[in-house]
Structure formats: structure tokens, C-alpha cells
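hi! just following up on the protien thing from before. the input was this:
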Amino acid sequence: MPFKKEDFKDLAGLQEKMGRLLSESVRRIREIAEPDAEKAWAPAVDIYELPGAFVLLVEASGIPRDHIAVEVQGQALVIRGDRPVVDEVAGAGLYRSERHYGAFERSFNLPVNVDSDRIRARMADGVLTITVTKPYSEASSRVQVNIEE
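and the predicted 3d structure came back as:
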């Protein structure tokens, strides 16, 4: 059975698709093996709600305490920091890198009327724990005012 011209077009199309697939696979492998240090990253954060507070647990492994700042800006809690690149083994070339390095910033909206003076942060075991005390509820914030004669 002789080949038709259309058969070769299909084969050329298949070859082009395979080439694109191979190029995309190689690009993804390079991204994993050699992550771009300039890419934006942010540490993982878990947020829990307790009866009297919100607690944020920030994954801060490898980030020195003096490289992290926590501040309130308006109604937002802002966490900024920088994980410096460190040479784990002196004189060795980097074979693979999966950890993220460089500057980061996370921002979380706070409930209205949070007393920013009552926000506490503590670093232990590679976790930054931020406790945001909730405002007093209506029932607990009522105060009886005596009327003088």
C-alpha cells in the first residue's frame, strides 16, 4: 500500500507535538533542579482561631530572628523577612537546591479593633508563632458607669 502525502503531514505534526512535549518536560526538570532564586516565595502559614485569639504559625526554618519583622499596617498584619543563602558544606558545589531563599512578605487582614499592643510573636524550633488577641466581645466590654448626685 503506497503512502499518501497526507500521511507525511500527520507524521510531521506528530513529530512537532513530540518536540514540544520534550521541550516542556526539559524546562520543568530544570525548574525543579535549578530553582530561580529571584522567584517570589513565601513561607507556609497556618492560622488557628481560639476563643480569645488568632494564632499564626509561620514556617521560618533557616530564617534568623533578626531577618524577620512583624508589624501592623492599618488593619493588616504584615510579616516580612529574608532567608539568606548559606553554604551548607564548605568548598562543595551545589548539586540540587529545593529550599527557597531571599526576601518574602505575607499580609493578613485583621479583625476590626484589634489592639496591636497585644500582639505577641515568638520564634522556636523554626516556627514563628504570632498571637493576635481578639477584641473584647460586647458582653465583656460593658462597663457600668455610676451617675453621681
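The chain has two domains: 1-34, 45-87+98-137.
The chain has a mean pLDDT of 79.
cheers
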